[in-house]
Design brief:
The chain is of the alpha/beta class and 506 residues long. It is 33% helix and 27% strand. The protein has three domains: 157 residues, PAS domain (Beta-Lactamase, 2-Layer Sandwich); 162 residues, Rossmann fold (3-Layer(aba) Sandwich), CATH 3.40.50.2020; 150 residues, Rossmann fold (3-Layer(aba) Sandwich). It is built from 16 helices and 20 strands. The strands form four sheets. A seven-stranded mixed beta sheet has the order 16-15-14-17-18-19-20. It has a six-stranded antiparallel beta sheet with strand order 1-4-5-6-2-3.
């Protein structure tokens, strides 16, 4: 919620925006807020609890009331972009960057006064036309006596170059590199893709207004450029898949209005892809409706990874639809993990049997020894699961239960129990998309599973990561996406990626 209009004048002079119901965009600020919420037991988390597990790159200050000052306890390096070089134990009044120290002190005061986290945005003017968009979070912490007296902080900085004055001569045109944006929680994946492409992620602005409407716009010129927009469309706390889809549509529209030559939507996880056909009279075919929205707003191409039904995905779009395959990453991982051990691949339902069979063949080729197969199915009565069928040779074998995604975890957990009952020695779960909805991590933690292997198409929440610590492995798809983007940008073929995955990928 944007609350700047209700704040005091001294805050308006320092910040362009202040939210007292924050929903950060940046990676560091999002992690810090999630850590604060996960640690909260009373009015605010205790200072000792948060500082003892400060793994998200943030910083913590303790108030010095008698001096109207704050002392940095941990994270001096993380705070340096605002304060300059400071040591832990130093006070804000001693910081080299006086303007940054004032901003922090004012924000800390506001967070302690409100008793809730506060998020602000402002722009730093650097050398020449260089600018830095700053997102800064401050969240109150309780001391040992229960009183609020410390602050957890984190910042995210996005650097960009301000447009040149119209009278300034422009340099000669040269071959353009890929222009890549990453929206919302996909920013961390976007940064990894940008590194693979040896480019800088292009800056943009995302704002949420007090009536929950959004504004998203590029902060660099895109006229006549080949633009790629990375946005994984999974639902998360405070941001549904529909919210993310609408933000992506508006951003593509803004790019088109700004003169982009071509816009490609890169959606590692595509929402509504499971509703690709009618299963009941008058059912919506949501996949096709999503395709029509993207086409109408001006997208030229869509790229996704392991669509729920590849044929339905490709048929839904009239624009170019590229379905990448991350199973090569999973196959290489399990080839190393299993070695010469007898193995079997199991589909948790009949709908995924073809996917599991293709994966079994790929793994068998890499291992150069036979890999068994199995499948499970269930039937329902009055909407409830009334019985289950299991078929396959899993006795004495390590089993990989494969699906395109893990949502509630119930189907995978039932398959794991069936495999154990049929004599499997070790049980692994594998899926491209780890959605982990509705306490899935609790369901899976109680099942006989040794390891859960997913990719980073979806970023798991901190709660999921903590509960599945030691049992979850995440494989990176950035090399796959970067190879695909480079080849599409250069007019090359992606057939090799569909067959084997990129060489050198993890």
């Amino acid at each position: 919620m944007t609350t700047l209009a209700e704040t005091q004048p001294h805050l308006k002079r320092l910040f362009e925006r202040i939210d007292l119901a924050p929903r950060p965009i940046g990676v560091e600020t999002s992690r810090a807020l999630e850590h604060w919420r996960a640690s909260r037991r009373g009015v605010a988390p205790t200072f000792a609890d948060v500082v003892a597990d400060l793994r998200h790159g943030g910083f913590a200050f303790r108030a010095v009331p008698e001096a109207r000052d704050y002392e940095i306890v941990i994270g001096a390096k993380a705070a340096a972009p605002l304060l300059g070089a400071v040591a832990e134990g130093a006070r804000l009044s001693e910081a080299p960057n006086r303007r940054g120290a004032v901003r922090l002190r004012r924000l800390f005061d506001e967070a302690l006064r409100a008793g809730e986290p506060a998020l602000v945005e402002f722009t730093l003017v650097e050398k020449g036309r260089d600018r830095a968009g700053v997102e800064l979070l401050a969240a109150p912490l309780a001391l040992a006596d229960g009183a609020l007296g410390a602050v957890l902080g984190a910042l995210n900085i996005q650097r960009y170059e301000a447009p040149a004055p119209t009278h300034e001569p422009q340099p000669p045109a040269k071959e353009e590199a890929v222009t890549l944006f990453a929206l919302g929680s996909s920013r961390a994946l976007g940064e990894r893709v940008a590194r693979e492409l040896a480019i800088t992620l292009s800056p943009h602005e995302e704002r949420r207004f007090e009536d929950e409407e959004r504004k998203t716009r590029p902060l660099v010129g895109v006229r006549d450029k080949d633009v790629y927009v990375l946005a994984s469309l999974e639902g998360e706390t405070g941001d549904s898949g529909a919210d993310k889809l609408l933000r992506l549509l508006f951003f593509i529209g803004a790019l088109r209005d700004a003169g982009a030559a071509r816009v490609t939507a890169v959606t590692p996880y595509l929402c509504y892809a499971r509703k690709d056909r009618r299963t009941k009279p008058l059912d919506p075919v949501a996949t096709r409706y999503v395709a029509q929205l993207l086409e109408a707003i001006g997208a030229d191409r869509i790229v996704t990874i392991d669509a729920h039904n590849v044929a339905a995905f490709e048929n839904a779009f009239r624009i170019e639809a590229v379905a990448l395959d991350a199973q090569a990453l999973l196959a290489r991982y399990f080839a190393q993990r299993l070695g010469a051990e007898p193995a079997a691949i199991v589909s948790p339902d009949l709908g995924g049997e073809k996917r599991a069979e293709l994966f079994r063949q790929r793994l068998e080729t890499i291992l150069a020894h036979p890999v068994a197969k199995g499948f499970m199915d269930k039937h329902r009565s009055m909407g409830e699961i009334a019985g289950e069928i299991f078929a396959g040779d899993v006795a004495g074998r390590a089993v990989v239960i494969l699906d395109d995604l893990i949502s509630s975890g119930g189907t995978m957990a039932r398959a794991a129990r069936a495999c154990r009952a049929n004599g499997a020695t070790r049980i692994f779960l594998a899926a491209t998309h780890g959605l982990f909805a509705r306490d899935a991590e609790i369901t899976l933690r109680e099942a006989p599973i040794e390891e859960i292997v997913v990719t980073d198409t979806v970023t798991p929440s901190e709660a999921v990561a903590l509960r599945l610590r030691g049992r979850m492995v995440t494989l990176g798809v950035a090399p796959l996406l970067a190879k695909a983007i480079a080849r599409l940008h250069g007019g090359g073929s992606i057939d090799e990626l569909l067959d084997t995955g990129p060489k050198g990928a993890p």
